[in-house]
């Protein structure tokens, strides 16, 4: 069974907590240990961020980590090798979250094939909407890669249904109209938005952009199956003084997110 299909079947039991980690941040040699720490902390899946110089959906924290990763020499090929190393010791679902440009630079078909070969399970590509995704999804399907499309608070019922229909195992509801970044509170109307998503979508969905605390998890789950947390985690990692403490911070942060 596909790892993300297996995860999708658990929707509604306990909330999924899915961390986002920019590969190569804060240093290439720390990525594998951080992935291990996130799994020990209870991650249900991990989003591995593919750094890009113009991450249009991301706020200042992820922008900064992406640039630091690129400055440190991170490449797409190295990220896939790191996923392969993690996969040799873990069966945790892995999604690559990134923009189309680095994938095109690698070679789209070659990227999908290599991603599948090393143990990637799915893709989140914010700058590819459903209307433009068909040829890419065909290649991803051939490689047995799940595709996760994004919906926004401005998405109406028809758009929510389209996102649901096009996503392979689950979709991603963006919590705010804006870029990624941790927030003290989520929008007041998020319950109405997620209720509409629940009534319009047949597959599970996760919520991200702004999730930073356990109270946010309980605020959106249910109806969401889970959450994605990125900026708050990366900020905590970045504030730790050395590699050992960063690993511990990552593990502890994940544990603290559980309601």
UniProtKB/TrEMBL annotation:
One of its GO terms (cellular component) is cytosol. GO terms for molecular function: tryptophan synthase activity. It comes from the Bacteria. Pfam families: Trp_syntA. It is an enzyme of class 4 (lyase). The keyword Cell wall biogenesis/degradation does not apply. PROSITE patterns: TRP_SYNTHASE_ALPHA. Tetramer of two alpha and two beta chains. Belongs to the TrpA family. This is Tryptophan synthase alpha chain. It comes from Eiseniibacteriota bacterium. The lineage of its organism: Bacteria, Candidatus Eiseniibacteriota.
């Amino acid at each position: 069974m596909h790892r993300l299909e297996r995860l999708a079947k658990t929707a509604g039991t306990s909330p999924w907590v899915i961390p986002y980690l920019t590969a190569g941040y804060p240093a290439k040699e720390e990525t594998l240990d951080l992935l291990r720490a996130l799994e020990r902390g209870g991650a249900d899946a991990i989003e591995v961020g593919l750094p890009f110089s113009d991450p249009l959906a991301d706020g200042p924290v992820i922008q900064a980590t992406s640039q630091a990763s690129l400055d440190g020499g991170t490449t797409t090929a190295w990220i896939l090798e790191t996923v392969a190393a993690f996969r040799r010791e873990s069966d945790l679902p892995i999604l690559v979250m990134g923009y189309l440009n680095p994938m095109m630079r690698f070679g789209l078909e070659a990227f999908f094939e290599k991603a599948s070969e090393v143990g990637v399970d799915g893709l989140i590509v914010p700058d590819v909407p459903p209307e433009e995704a068909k040829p890419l999804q065909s290649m991803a399907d051939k490689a047995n890669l799940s595709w996760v499309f994004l919906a926004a608070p401005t998405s109406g019922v028809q758009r929510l249904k389209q996102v649901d229909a096009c996503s392979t195992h689950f979709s991603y509801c963006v919590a705010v109209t804006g870029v990624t970044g941790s927030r003290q509170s989520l929008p007041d109307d998020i319950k109405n938005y997620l209720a509409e998503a629940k009534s319009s979508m047949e597959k599970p969905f996760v919520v991200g952009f702004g999730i930073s605390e356990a109270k946010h998890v309980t605020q959106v789950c249910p109806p969401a199956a889970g959450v994605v947390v990125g900026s708050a985690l990366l900020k905590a990692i970045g504030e730790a003084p050395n590699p050992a403490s960063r690993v511990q911070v990552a593990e502890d942060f994940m544990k603290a997110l559980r309601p």
